[in-house]
Amino acid sequence: MSENGAHESVKTTERSLDVVRVVQERGGVRISDIVEEFDMAKSTAYKHLRTLESRGYLVKEGEQYHIGLKFMNRGEYARTRKPAYRIAEDIVDDLADRTEHEVDFLVENDGRSIAVHFSYDPTNPFQDMNADPTNKHWRKGTYYHLHCIAAGKAILAHLPREAVEAIIEQWGLPARTERTITDPDELFAELETIREQGYAYSEGEYTDGMAAIAMPVIEPTGELLGGLAVNGPTYSLQNPDRRAELQSTLEEVVTAFETRLENIEWPDPFEQGTMS
C-alpha cells in the first residue's frame, strides 16, 4: 500500500469512529444527521453506517441507527482483561460493604478518567439518582474530567507535571459546579497537597451535595493503576471523625489491593511485544 493509501485508510477509520461518537452523543441518528454533521455525501454516510451495522457495532431501528451490543462485548473484555481490573471489582464491593458508601474505581484514559467498577450501598440517600438508568453519572464506562472528582485528582497528583499540563491543554478545566477548580495554578497547588497527605478530597466539585475521598492505586512496577474513591453526602464526609474513619479504611483497603497486585504474574513487556 502506498503512503497516501495508508493515510487515507487511517482517515477513513477516524471518520468511522467519529460517526460512532455522534451516534452515541445523539442517542441515535438518521443518515441525514451524519450528512449534516460531517458535510459528506449521502452515499458516503450510508457506507459508514452500513459497514458499522454489518459488523454489529450499530443496529438499525426504523430509520435510525443506534449503538450496537458489539461494543458491550468489546467493553467487557477491556474492563476485565487485566487481572488487576478483576481484583478491583472485589475490592470495590468489599469497601462499599465496609463503609456503606458508594465506591468507585477509575483509571485514566485519553486524559480523562473512566469508571471501571462501582458499587453503592442501597441506603445511599442519593439512591433515586442511581435508579435512573439514563443518568450517565452512574454507568460503568462513564468518562469524568479528572480535575473535578477525588479519584481523578488522586490520579493527577501521581502524573508528571507535563502530563497534567497536556491534559489541561486537551480538555481544559470545565466547571461542573461553582466549587470546581478551574484555575491551573490552584489545581497544581492542590495536587501538591494531595501528594503530601496521601489522599484526595472533593466536596461539591462534580455534584452539589456530594463529597468523596480517594487514594491512588500503584502497581508493583511503580506505574499508576487508577484511583479508588469513597463517595457520600457532604454532611457525612464533612464530619471530621467520619472522614478520618473513611480515610483509615480506604488506606487499609488500598494497601491490601496493592499487596494482591504483587502476587499477579505480570507479563514480560518484551515477550508480549513479540507476539503476533
Oligomer designation? single chain
Going by CATH, the homologous superfamily of the largest domain would be GAF domain
N-to-C terminal Cα separation, in Å?
20 Å
Count of spatially separate domains:
2
Helix content: 40-55%
Estimated structural class: alpha+beta
CATH class of the largest domain: Alpha Beta
Coarse morphology: globular
Residue windows where pLDDT falls under 50 for at least 5 positions: 125-137, 269-276
The helix/strand order is HHHEEHHEEHEHHHEEEHHH
Descriptive report:
- The protein is of the alpha+beta class and 276 residues long.
- The protein folds into 2 domains: 3-68, Arc Repressor Mutant, subunit A, CATH 1.10.10.10; 81-262, GAF domain (Beta-Lactamase, 2-Layer Sandwich), CATH 3.30.450.40.
- It has 12 helices and 8 strands.
- The chain has helices spanning 3-26, 31-38, 42-54, 70-80, 83-99, 127-130, 150-156, 161-171, 184-197, 234-237, 240-262, 269-273, and strands spanning 58-61, 64-67, 102-109, 112-119, 143-144, 200-203, 210-218, 224-233.
- Strands 5-4-3-8-7-6 form a 6-stranded antiparallel β-sheet, sandwiched between helices. The protein has a two-stranded antiparallel sheet with strand order 1-2.
- α2 crosses α3 (42-54) and α5 runs antiparallel to α11 (240-262).
- The relative contact order is 0.10.
Produce the secondary structure layout.
Layout: H1 3-26, H2 31-38, H3 42-54, E1 58-61, E2 64-67, H4 70-80, H5 83-99, E3 102-109, E4 112-119, H6 127-130, E5 143-144, H7 150-156, H8 161-171, H9 184-197, E6 200-203, E7 210-218, E8 224-233, H10 234-237, H11 240-262, H12 269-273
Antiparallel strand pairs: 1-2, 3-4, 3-8, 4-5, 6-7, 7-8
